[in-house]
Design brief:
Number of domains: 4
Keywords: Cell membrane, Membrane, Transmembrane, Transmembrane helix
Organism: Paenibacillus thermoaerophilus
Protein name: Mechanosensitive ion channel family protein
Number of strands: 8
Pfam families: MS_channel_1st, MS_channel_2nd, MS_channel_3rd
Subcellular location: Cell membrane
Largest sheet: 5 strands, antiparallel
Distance between the termini: 138 Å
Order of helices and strands: HHHHHHEEEEEEHEEH
Number of helices: 8
Helix content: 40-55%
Strand order of the largest sheet: 4-3-2-1-5
Shape: elongated
Length: 308
């Protein structure tokens, strides 16, 4: 390669351009016909392929090792949140993959006789300039790292960030994707996430208020509600504790308000509330207990007729 460059510079310098070009062609031809050139080229190619193969093997082995460690952690007797182990495991795999690929690229460049010192120095200067010019990007990356490391939320959790509420689709070092229940996907820079409400960490509470008419037997209604919610608890795995009939919550304008509470698995209280409302309504209909509804009673006043 150096011989080609020297011959090309000689051809482009003063003097006979034609003879210089002929000399350049002869240099290329002699080099390509040289067995030493092809031996060195094949040896360099072999080393590049070997570097890529070793890098791939290291990535695969490290990935299998991390998956094995995560599985052991999940099956151990220690109470470790599997969400946290999976999230951190994915982050570690990405870091290892990036690091191995970067080292492999440096080794390949060194095999091509490229001086890495100026390249690394230039990359450091460029990185410093980018760091000053992209402070928001650096903020997003740092915030994303702490979100993953501190396990503030994980993929599959239902969270609310500002006015956005939905299921976490993806957590990256720069952005977080949230899918709302109507299907929209909100992409939020991690640096803009200042307050997060996570609905998937602890159990939730379903609160059901049922209003019965003033004429109904309140005690009979409460006993029937207790039987109904206990039956639903036995049929549903989402209810973690037996529901409680708290009793009379309020005396409303149209009837007596009875309240039931049920502790459910995270983010399951809405569906359980609908199911309990349906079953209580069916039970009241079968027992003849009337659900309160707005009504109007009209009194007709009759004037007394006086006679003379």
């Amino acid at each position: 390669m150096l011989e080609w460059i020297s011959a090309l510079s000689t051809a482009s310098s003063g003097g006979n351009v034609k003879s210089g070009f002929e000399e350049f062609k002869e240099t290329i031809s002699s080099t390509l016909m040289s067995g030493q050139f092809w031996a060195e080229a094949l040896f360099v190619l072999f080393k590049i392929v070997l570097v890529l193969l070793i890098a791939r093997i290291i990535i695969v082995v490290s990935d299998k090792t991390i998956q094995h460690l995560i599985k052991d952690r999940e099956e151990s007797r220690l109470k470790i949140d599997p969400r946290r182990t999976r999230t951190i495991g994915k982050l570690i795999r990405n870091i290892i993959t990036y690091a191995i690929n970067f080292i492999a690229i440096l080794l390949i460049l060194s095999q091509l006789n490229i001086n890495l010192a100026p390249l690394l120095a230039g990359a450091g200067i460029v990185g410093l300039a980018i760091g000053f010019g992209a402070q928001s990007l650096v903020k997003d990356v740092i915030t994303g790292f702490f979100i993953i490391f501190e396990d503030q939320f994980a993929v599959g959790d239902v969270i609310q960030v500002n006015q956005f509420k939905g299921t976490v689709e993806e957590i990256g070092l720069r952005v977080t994707k949230i899918r709302s229940w109507t299907g929209e996907v909100h992409i939020l820079p991690n640096g803009s996430i200042t307050e997060v409400t996570n609905f998937s960490v602890h159990n939730t509470l379903a609160v059901i208020d049922v209003t019965v008419a003033f004429e109904a037997d309140v005690q009979k209604a409460m006993d029937l509600m207790k039987q109904t919610v206990d039956r639903v608890h036995l049929e549903s795995e989402e209810i973690v504790k037996p529901p409680e009939v708290l009793g009379v919550q309020a005396l409303g304008a149209t009837g007596v308000v009875l309240r039931v509470i049920a502790e459910c698995k995270p983010n399951q209280h809405i569906g359980i509330g609908r199911k309990l409302n349906l079953e209580i309504k069916r039970a009241f209909d079968e027992a003849g207990i009337e659900i309160a509804y707005p009504r109007m009673v009209t009194y007709h006043r009759q004037e007394a007729k006086g006679g003379a």
